[in-house]
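Predict the 3D structure for this chain.
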Amino acid sequence: MPPHWESPEYYDFIHTYKSECASKQNYDRTFPDVTVSAQVNWWTRLAVTTSTAQAGAIASLKVNNKEFIASGAKGSSLQYAFHAWQQGGAPSECYNPTQAGARIEGETQPPPHHGPSTSALYTMARTGSSIRTEARPAMFMTRTDPKPGWDGCFGADHQPDRVPFSMGLSPYWLRTQVELAPDHAMPTLDNVVRLAASITSEDTPHDFFNGVLVAYLQRDFTEVYSYDLAGGTTTVRPPESYASKDPMMRCTSDGNHCLGMYVRPQVLGTQAYYYTMTRPPTPYNGMLGEATIQVTSPSGKMSTGDTLGYETFLAVGNKDRVSSAIGKLHRLMG
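Done. Predicted structure below.
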């Protein structure tokens, strides 16, 4: 029996990932969760876990014993999601390939909603301090989902009645890599995680296709900052929502635990940006609230057989250490 839904214990039960409470089954395949770790310094250890129940998404990122990621259900964790649409249309939650799985799993699976994912996972393996995955993402709103998406859409109105849509899946292949030190080959940046991904289309051509890497953080990551790449300074930003071309970070109120994102500015271009959002408890998020940080990718045409690539760097630690890491990344790669 889970704790009362309004208690701190319930939040921890839902959003603090425990591998022993999560499914290791994916269709007819079984995968153990995979964890890689790196010693940042003699008193600090960084560990990242990809989850079978989340089809290879990152369900846990810990610095020592402090969990950063909120992982309840399939619309959370640290994962990739995508939209495809045609000229004259708009991005829709009902055409939204999502790495971790489908919305409906949050209703059909008991808390903490870490049963088998609708997304089809084919590879999740560790080599050294790296993890690679390969999967076919689910549609977040499947054809059979009886509830509307946030824009009032229904999956059946946006997706054709054929495989793979009829199985709740999208016509895309997602391959991801997680690299910690020393595999990411960035000396003095042992508190950095390199994330890379590629997505390949088996879909009909779309005029627009974009992706987002989003991290749902624990609710005590209440503070939001942007980092000025030119001046090397941080600025407090409104936690409710903020978009920026400068890298951003979310921190606990004491500044002892922060997660920042960095993408090369030339990759962001003129369209893409960083974005943070804080939502209060609502039925949409299971009355548990949301604290996110994400980075978008430029939108453009996606044809059958096309492959797009992504690279993002995460920096973790206290506020000063994350700021320093973002500055070093920019000098190294910017």
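The CA atoms of residues 3 and 10 lie 5 Å apart.
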